[in-house]
Write a structure and sequence with these properties.
Distance between the termini: 54 Å
CATH superfamily of the largest domain: P-loop containing nucleotide triphosphate hydrolases
Structural class: alpha/beta
CATH topology of the largest domain: Rossmann fold
CATH class of the largest domain: Alpha Beta
Number of strands: 5
Helix content: 40-55%
Largest sheet: 5 strands, parallel
Strand order of the largest sheet: 2-3-4-1-5
Shape: globular
Number of helices: 15
Radius of gyration: 23 Å
Length: 344
Amino acid sequence: MFRTVGHDKAVRALTRALDNDGIAHAYLFAGPPQVGKMTLAMDIARAVNCVADEQPNMFGEVEPKPCITCGPCDRIARGLHTDVRVVGLGEDSRGRTQTLISIDQVREVQREASLRPSEGKYRVFVFDRAEYLSQGAATALLKTLEEPPDQVIFILAATDSDRMLPTISSRCQTYKLRPVRQSVIADHLRSEYEAEEEIAEEIARLSEGRVGWAISTVADPSVLEAIEEKITTVESVVRAGLETRFEYAEKLARAFTRDRDAVRDELAVWLEWWRDMMVVKAGLPRYVKHLARLDTFQAGAAKVTVEEVAKAVSAVEETGRRLDRNANARLALDNMMLAMPRIR
């Protein structure tokens, strides 16, 4: 069975393809971070290498693919299968996250793809954050997609597929994964992780449809505590003067060289905070994500205009885009701080 949650249409289509030997040589799974792209990719990797139909269970029944329990499915789930490889942003010699997937990484994939599968039926290469393929890497991968080897499947997972070469996207069967409904996530947390009703609802509300984030959060309650700390930081910076704001920007810029995802997560909290301020300004407090902070938003909403809130949201979004384009992190974050209205 597929482990993917909330993307039933994609699962049904891919299951039909599996049943009819219609698996494509390349897929593009596009959608927000942690929405389920990598889970679906691993489901495909397990399904094409599953041997369930060759191994009836103890009741003599044939389990649906992927079965999860056979040797290949288990090894893929644990990241031990030699024919399934994830390619993404690695670390450089100084331990910093690379900004692009390099051509050397793609060339290594090409070398492995030219070989027959060593322990399974298919070699599966999953490119995580495929929009970060360098120009050279994308060009090299395109050549392979144009003449794909037998018994090889390429899966590209991308948050922003518009940044990819159109010629690559056109050679992939594309599935757009949208945010999962809050009720689906809450039900999954209760049934599969035995989460209490209140916790399941809170995590589902905060997840914004990112089922992967919800699952990791229910397993680690400290994530919610960290979010509360970040919101407290945002509120203190919004109230502060330029000196404190620039100190905060400098701290984030330094962190960005070590852990880009952590800084992106912090910017996401800024967006959530201003979004909640906007819905309160619009007289819709029931849509506030961080309900525990409702009093703060109501007090702040009386001190800013809709135009100022909109400007703050635009500033955070533009900062994220600049960081993704490898702009000077300190300058981008300083500009964001200058654009923030001060709520005393």
